[in-house]
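pinging the channel bc i need a second pair of eyes. not urgent but kinda urgent?? the chain im working w is below, pasted from the shared doc
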Amino acid sequence: MKNTELSEKLIKILELRYEPVAVKLIKKGQKIPEGFTEPANNIRHCQSIMRARNGESFIMPAEKHACVVGASSLGLVPTPPKVKSGEFHTNLAMFECTDAAANMISQRSELEEGSTVATVVGPLKDFEFEPDVVVLVDVPETLYWLIPAATFFEGGRQAFSTAAFQATCVDSTLIPLLTGKMNMSLGCFGCRRSTDIKNEEMIAGIPYVNLGKMVEALEKIHGGPMQKARKKEG
């Protein structure tokens, strides 16, 4: 299926409120895709995703990333010493001590410094090439259906990894990319403070290589179990 078809099916079956968002990490030596413009001002990775769900598209080299925490995990810039030591996050009053904050950073997924030269983010339907990850933002009931879709063919259980920070850059982009498995996040301090994500919304990141199979499963589930379980208003 083409990206336009995948996007249309996701929106129709899940009744998504927003566009599915495609994310591509441009590695050193890779060609920069055409047709994307840089944001006028520096923005965060989470902001680019939330804006992309409403139809915008961006290419963001390292110097356009406003959040060094996210940019460093994506391999765009070095991890600042204060982030690595835990001082940065402790100053936000989200940890009792720097050791606790440093422990969070030491356990996060991250790419090698300088391995990524830019991120490309936009609606999936507008991507004429394969992204790395597709990110969905919606309410829990909507994203719940991704779980039976992920387990439809082989069964098993889903395990999700998250933290108080980095819901989009680590939880929804890097973990799906590096593990090859879907990951979900309840959101984080940064994205809830800096974007228009609603209190009741959460985030899911899906490896693009798995998306076709998940859409196939959703199509099979849609007519029966999904309609029986969904509670319509009115």
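so The longest strand covers residues 116-123. and The chain is about 40% helix and 15% strand. — does that match what u expected or am i reading it wrong
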